[in-house]
Amino acid sequence: MKKVLFRGCATALATPFTNSGIDEQALRKLVNYQIDNGVAALIACGTTGEPSTMTQEEWAETIQIVVDETKKRVPVVAGTGGNNTAEVIHLAALAEKLGAQAQLCVTPYYNKTTQQGLIAHYTAIADNSNLPVIIYNVPSRTGLSIAPETVGALSHHDNIIAVKEASADMIKLGDMIRLSEGRLAFYSGTDEVVVPLMSLGGLGVISVISNAAPALTVQMTEAMLRGDTQKAAELQLKLLPLTHALFSEVNPIPLKAAMHMMGICENQVRLPLVPLGESNARVLEKELKALGLLA
Questions:
Q1: What is the DSSP string of the chain?
Q2: Which member of 164, 172, 187, 256 is catalytic?
Q3: Mean pLDDT of the chain, nearest integer
Q4: Is pLDDT at 1 greater than 90 in this prediction?
């Protein structure tokens, strides 16, 4: 395996907004909340961070704030992925200048290419970027799934280091791990199946729910890493009701509502997203209280 960027829980940060832009104070607060609770890495401007509705200036500002506040305590990964290969390469160069240690690249969407196109896309990014590449497979959002054989082919590239797998398909995941022959790290991109993925050799999770519940998510991954599968399974099941509540509507709609309830940031999402519905908000509040995250 190539150099491992992190083991355990990394948080795909939500981006706190105000009516006029990025809420710097809230973002810095969120970064410290994560690090104080033991997360192993932070992802800035991943899809949970709503980069598709940011200007490039806001994207750069967000990454710069996260890098600055992190102070090298944990690695920072920048979300650079998109459906324009040349633009991804451009963003990777900017992210490197801003101080990111790696880049998270979602598979192209809409103009969603073939498997050979995916090989060409990721190879071009890896060839033309100094930042190591984490492939992000989330077919529910992109309409495109990367095949295990494609992952196996890309695993030979020295600058492609990991896969964030969010299909929750354990059969496909097993084939990805088998065909990459130990050359890649694998992280769950689905909070409901962290323990099953790690049982097949995954090294952790790039998590949404850890924005709200970092300590419990860290405890779950650390239990798996030390071989305490019973404890890890208990925590996976304990977190499931909150996880379901945080995905009751399109991510990060419920997450922003949770973070507002917890006093971290305003309940601001950008159109076309709209705030969480009242009935789902009541369920979310109940589950946050059940885990001791709300008084």
A1: -------EEEEE----EETTEE-HHHHHHHHHHHHHTT-SEEEESSGGG-GGGS-HHHHHHHHHHHHHHHTTSS-EEEE---S-HHHHHHHHHHHHHHT-SEEEEEPP-SS---HHHHHHHHHHHHHT-SSPEEEEE-HHHHS----HHHHHHHTTSTTEEEEEE-S--HHHHHHHHHHHTTSSEEEES-GGGHHHHHHTT--EEEESGGGT-HHHHHHHHHHHHTT-HHHHHHHHHHHHHHHHHHTSSSTTHHHHHHHHHTTSS-----TT--PPPHHHHHHHHHHHHHTTS--
A2: 164
A3: 97
A4: no
Which of the residues 2, 29, 122, 136 is marked catalytic?
136
Secondary-structure class of domain 8-225 per CATH: alpha beta
C-alpha distances (whole Å) from 71 to each of 23, 114, 115 are: 19, 40, 38
Q: Which residue has the tokens 């519940």?
A: 213
Give catalytic status of residue 187 as yes or no.
no
pLDDT of residue 2: 80
Q: 272 preceded by cis ω (within 30°)?
A: yes
231 carries an active-site annotation: no
Domain locations in the chain? 8-225
Per DSSP bridges, beta strands 160-165 and 133-137 are parallel
Q: What is the pLDDT of residues 134-175, one digit of tens each?
A: 999 999 999 999 999 999 999 999 999 999 999 999 999 999
Tens digit of each residue's pLDDT (9 = 90 or more) over 84-112: 999 999 999 999 999 999 999 999 999 99
Whole-prediction pTM:
0.97
Closest CA to 190 of 162, 166, 169: 166
